[in-house]
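Fold sample X.
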Amino acid sequence: MVVIQSANTERMASEADSSGSPVLSSEARARVRDEVVEACNIVAQSWPMKIFAYRNPLRGLEHLTFDEAIRKGKHLLGGNGYLPNDDYRHLYREGVITDDAVRQAIRRAKPDIDSQAIMVGTRRISSLDVLRLHLLFGFDALAPALLSWQLSGGGSTREFRHDLPDESRNPREGVESYLTQLWESTLSALNLADTSHESQQDEEPEESEQPTVELPAGRAISDWLGLLAGASLVDQINDQMIKWTAAFLDEGLAGWEMPGRHSGFYPAWRELAARDYSGRFLGIEHFTRKIRDLPDSPEDAIAQFLERLGISEQRWPDYQARQFAQLPGWVGFIRWRGERPHYPAQKEHPIDPVQYLAVRLFYEVELVQSFCRREWQIDGTLSALTSHWETHQDEYQKRVGRTCHAVDRRTQTICRDAWRLFHLAQFLELTPSDVEALSPSDIQSLLGWLDALPTDEHGPVWLDALESKYREQLIGELSTQVGKAPTTRARPRAQLSFCIDARSEPFRRHIEAQGPYETHGYAGFFGIPIRYQAFDDDTRQPLCPVPIFPGFAVNEVPRSAEDGPLQTYATGSRWNQLGRHLFHDLKSNPIGSLMLIDALGLFFSFRLVGKTFFTKSYESVKSWARKWFAPKVVTEIPIDVVEDHHDDATPVLPHGFTLEEQAFFIEKGLRAMGLTENFAPLVVLCGHGSTADNNPYAAAYNCGACGGGHGDPNARIFAAMGNRPEVRSILDEHGISVPDDTLFVAGKHDMVTDRVTLLDLEQAPESHAEDIQLLTRDLERAGGSQALERCRRLPQAPKNVSPEQAFDHVRSRSMDWANVRPEWGLSSNFAFIVGKRWLTRDLNLEGRSFLHCYDADADSEGKVLEGIMTAPLVVTQWISMEYYFSAVDPWSYGAGSKVTHNVVSGVGVMHGAHSDLAAGLPLQGLNDGSKHYHEPVRLIAILQAPTARISALIQKHTVLQQIFHNQWIHLMAIDPATGEFHRYNPDATWVPYR
């Protein structure tokens, strides 16, 4: 244990800090920091909204099995990891979950009792029958306090359960007579007296076990006091932490900045909190003095606070994790900031979980102390609380709810055994005589089967059944394609490489339907990890999957022939920036804001009316004004390396690429796409993004592989590299011969408007003009077909319209600032398919599958597959889990409803004016009213590759072992030689899929 005032311990220094507080040794301080960082892993990182990145909210628990992680997450974070059983039952009634899938899921969950059965007369009742009924309808024990009411006012012996199927309702006699006799027979079979007689309830209540007085595992003292005395200490602490963190983490939204942020969160808080008079209203005595007496080091403060609370060192990690779990949204963002020292805001205003925890524990210590002194005149320490309640055992039992309803054993047995057997008998269509004839061993078997699958374990079985339906359907479709590999390949009109994003799959189908086009799937950053600065923008954005650090910096610049337009643009841009800054300052000023209403009220009323009622006309006028005021400047992205770039905000990154690096990226990308021969006249690299108005989640609909950015800069760089003769010469030496008449072209797919725009056509030679014109026409037609397909799924979208009308509708959705759902995003994603295009070309996968091209025959060493499995596959798992958990518990793991969202600090949203930072996805992006548009299932990865190659890569990478062995993803393999399907088991074995 770290002892703060001990001269003998090695973990103490012999000096005090500037506040006079004793300090830890450097080694002890490092250990405290390491413990805090480890404890914070329970909370997943949260990216800021402007660079939204998908993540698994239980990522810190991926070392556990999926079900174990869900249970631990429930304990620490309070979120549910499965849909409510009633939701699964609704899906069953609608036919989404099949009866066969339910039976198979039960067999997999309970293989040890699957073959058991009893005989009732000549009828065989199997354990599978009982477990199936238990899953579909639920036979739970009755709360003893409800027994009397259920047998009288509740009508349990007069009417069938409402969910009892009609065909199971006994027609041979009156309902009330049948149920009354069935209940009496059930009691008789269990040797229980009829509870209708008061005299039979005189048995002494069963003595309840004396509860141990101790702090519950995974809980803080403030939690415990909430349970024992209804104290709202956690809410008070959260209120203070939200106030301070929201102010500190602001990235330009606030008119007045929190002062002193440059020194870090903990020092800035100490400086300001000492002057915060509101702190006195918390009931903390000598508030200012206590803050000024705090140690300078947050690690020292943490050790002091845990010592003052009396928490043993063995419980420190558990206690710290609970503190972080109280506000997982804010802590997740703080953790993300702390792990990115080069993030501009972090460099200017540093914060990390250690500083956060030091501040939080101050409020924990002082509020607990104040409450305990006020309520019980004891110290707010664990030992004092334990001693107090050990001497007040009776009151303690009442407060923890142990003796509120003392129940005799007979009543307990009736509520547990008789009640369940009574209802099970109805669904099994047993007569009263059947029940009375049951032997004790038969009754024990029936109840034992129910016990084997308690209600809180139904979720994993339901999930397995839901997943198996889609898994079997998908594999059945893929099986029809296995023998269709093309023997010859004619030269296509164009080859288009799209992001693996599931939303690209429908567009690929529609463009291929327009003519001899060939599409490929590749990660949307096209294998080029860059930090990108757009023209006339002073910020740099990483454009690569979030597990990858950008390796290069690039700038978008005007083309050399753009001097005239550039001068006009610069003038307009300066006036625009001046107006924006002036407006922001006036709006934030208490006096200026009043003048602003009178001066610009009429102007904004026109804007309000235009954006609300005349959306398209307003956008047209605004676009015209923008072109007139600041005309478009044709730009390019230089790709050659620049040795000295003094204005670069990221001097640690090389600016541009060497010729060898350019050839490396092109070769790697072409091989990953399986595009190494038979090149078309046009090869289009199609990045993507999304357009929406008034949508804080705009980045969430952009390229998930690019950290919420648009993928077109990467596509432009890839095309520029691929068109260089020097690069093609190197490729030719490496066995990839690109014809002289092949032109690489960059494009951008807008996922809301369904339009693909070809970029940098100024550099296209005249020889390709006709090909580009034809491709542009076919892209427009494909977009119309795609828009029509999307309209059939989108709520409140027209269904029976032409492609042109569908095009017009989806465009209007992108402009509508009141539309909470401009698109469905990646809702309904289910599978990640890695293989040759012919495997999926003729299938309609309904936008549910990520598609990555891969040729196992050309990757004998497995390097391409390794890159796919350790980057795109991991990212798709994060996407899948983000959608999964946001769907099963939209208020704990998701962002809840957009209706109450309030943008805070420029980094995220809160509910109303004061809440945790909402992580995850909003309800409107997952549900259509009460209907789950995204049915939460785990991702299934289907790799067209040899099983031995896949196993070797899993064995090599811990991250793959965790997500496959712990069943965060289901893994299937298609043998490239035989076309046979194999399923990967958690024990690292493969079995043929039947």
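Fold sample Y, listed below.
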Amino acid sequence: MGGKKTLLGIIILVFSVLGGNVHSLGAREDPVDVARTLIVDQRYNEALLILAEAARRDSNRMDEVERLIRRIRNIRGSYNDKYEELITVLYTDKDVKKALDIIADLESLDTNPNPATQSAILRAKESALFVYNRDLFNAVMEKAAAQLEQKEYWGAVETYLTGFSIGREGFDNAGYGNIVTGGTDAALESLKKASEIFLQGRKAQTEALRSLREAGQTPNPGAVEAAVAGYLAAVRPAALLFKTAMRSHETLFEKNRLAGTIRGGVREEDFFLGITMRFAAGRRNAVSPEGLKGAAELMMKEASLFARRLRERSETALSAGRGLLQPQEVVRARKFFTDAGVDAAAAERVLALWFEAVPPELGVADPLVWNAVASETGLYLGVSTARGGAAAYADLAGVIQTAHRDPPPPDAGVPELRAYRGTLRNGEETLELLEGKWGREMGSLRDNPLSDETARGLAAGLLDDLGLWGGRLRAMEAETVDRIAGLEIRPLNDGLAARSEDFRRAQSFLDGVEKRVEMPGGGVETAVFRYPAESLEILGRLPGALSSLRKSTEDFIAAYRNENPGIRDYPELTAKTTGAGNNLAEIEKLEASVRAAGERARESLLLAERYKNEGNRKIAEAESAIRQGNYDLAGENIKSARQAFSTSLSHQEDPAFRRQSDARLLALDAEIVKALNNQIVLEVRRLLNEGKRLYDGKDFFRAESVLAQAQSRWRTTHIEDEPEVKRWLGYVRAALSVKADRVLLETDPLYPEMNQLLNLARQDYSRGKELMDKGSRREALVHLARAEEKIRQVTMTFPYNQEASVLQLRIAQIKDREAFAARFRSMFKEASEKLKTKPEEGYRDLLDLEQIDPNFPGLKAAIFEIEIILKIRTRPPSRQDITESEVLYDRAASIVSSNNRSQFAIALDQLNRAIELNPDNRRAMELKDRVQIAVGGQTSVVLSSVAEDQYRNAERLFIAGNYFEALAIVERLLQNKETRNYPPLLELKRRIESRI
């Protein structure tokens, strides 16, 4: 049963594989015998079908059928093993030759395989042939690549030519037609001819390349020239081969495309056309050049090393020359530029061979051409730029040499400078042309992707140098023009400076010149003196000189503002034209200032004369007043004269007039002070006596006014207070200080309201007293209460008001006389006790009580004592005081009688002390007045002109708040014996010190 099942499975498998297509058998043929015959004929598939049919029809022959099927399976297993070996050998081991042997064995094992197997074997055979031919192609490419790497260009060409038969049989059998095959053959024939020409020149080419390499190592121009000529002659076949290879490649590419169309639009290329394309121009993804084109390319690129070396030498020479581009080294620089040009030109000629090699109809649009010529084109652009740059630098060096050959010396005049400017201008024009050309060249290099940074850098550097030296030449031209302008503007500037100095001198005469002046009475002061007359003499000459200077300056500006912008805008020249413009403005201002100064000078002269006349008039009036004995008026007049003369001298200094006017004024001053002092001594005595009388009458306000008038009058001719007047003013003011707030004054706040309240209070008091006297006590008390309320309102604001206090006491007195008497005694006692502790308060209380009962026992004595304590009065002189006063008088009288004037000051001190001890010592008073008249006044009515100016200056500084500066002037003036007794000066010192 197991065997039967196995056979059944085989039969099912056979039918599933072979599709059940069984040969029909004749009735007389035995199917098993037929199957044996088919097995012998290697027709295994048919045998399997017949055996399967026989087993299906007759199960008794199953064992016989199974034996035949097992035999076929054994044969089939050997076939499958061979097929598996083919797959491994062909696709894994890639042993193409062995694979082809296996395919022959497979064909012998089964001459009639099934269609699938037959198709697989065919594909394997095609793959093996492809791999075989591919390996032949790769072997050619690898061998040639190795030769190219070793620079065996000619061997590589020969190797490539051996590959032109690979795959040809398949190409010929493809049936493409004459269009494809004819064009292909023509392209290959031209390529073979170009290769033969190339191979024939092997010896010459080898020698040419050697010479070129050696020439690249030597700076000998002759060797370089010979090597370049030999190279161009020998290597032209390489250029022809490159061009032919590129054109053949293009043709083969086109025929390959056409062949694909013939094959029905198949995208895969024809094997033969594909490899011949690559033999011609190499593979597109090759790392280094390949094919016949590559051999020619690499040979020609050997010249690149030579070209690069010469380019480097050229650029090195250019760099060295650039480094020497200065006037002192320009000759050496030109030699470098010449050498650079020779080297660059040689390199350019070698690289120009590429123009013969590149087919013009293809150009760089073809990637293979682009890859070949890209680096060479960039190199060519570089050496071409270096050659052109060397020529341009040589021209630049020539311009620099010419420009610096004979520069004008520092002392050159205007004609010599103008000639040199022409030389510079010619050089500038040459550089401008070069700069325009190389600006365009720089644009081309920038837009060309094949140019390198070195070429662009060289062009940019050349443009920079042209711009730099163009700028320097323009700067040299501008400097030259500036020198010309400097020579032309110098007299204009000097003229303006001279006229400005003239005006400055005139102005200084007008504004004032500081001078140190010796003061009468000692000391030196610095004063400012003005001289408008001298100023006017200078100013009169200036208008004509300034008009001529203005015309010359305008001509200068017009000439240089019409220069070309490069010159006109040169900073130094612009500064000169701007300076000239400023000069014009300065001239105009100076002309206006001259006119204004002239008017001012003339005005000053008029004012000086006017005030001189006014001063003389005031002196005449002073002299008249002296004759009339009106010394106060005389003093005022000489003060006015001093002011007028000082003002006159402030406008126009006149040393003679200054001395003369000072002498006249000081003489009158001494005369007036002496006469005035005589009057003042007597007047002060009269006022002092009047003040004492008013004091005794307790009219303190008038007494103070009279005594203050006496002191003020005394200070007209003396710098210190009169001692007697000062003492009595002390008494009066002490009394007034106690009396302060006791009397309601019109100047007091709320005076109208308070005065009205007091009046109403007095009325209520009078009415109450009247009613009290009539016995109407109740009604009287009402009015008295009203009076007290009003008094209370007054004392709230003026608590020490005497009228309110006294009225309050009178009300208390009439309300209860017996009680008031006791109260009066108590108040007197309390006031007396305050004499030592609160004398002012006790004094006010005693004065109030005095208004009620002036004859109260001890009241007057108490008031007298407290007034002495408060220094309102003095105690009457004792006998000892009287005696001492007489002794002092006698001593003073002795000095006066001996007329010892040097001791008159001592006599005055003794007399003042005698009067202080005994205020009633009439003889001392009279003698004192005589001595004061004899001594004379201490003060000055006027100062000298210089001292007056210094005083006025100190006064101005004080008003401006410059207190220390003002005080310094005052202190210096106080050291001068002439000015130290000038009352206004002493008052100014006091005012300054009060602010510090």
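Sample Y note: Residues 453-511 form the longest helix (59 residues).
Also: The first strand starts at residue 513 and ends at 518.
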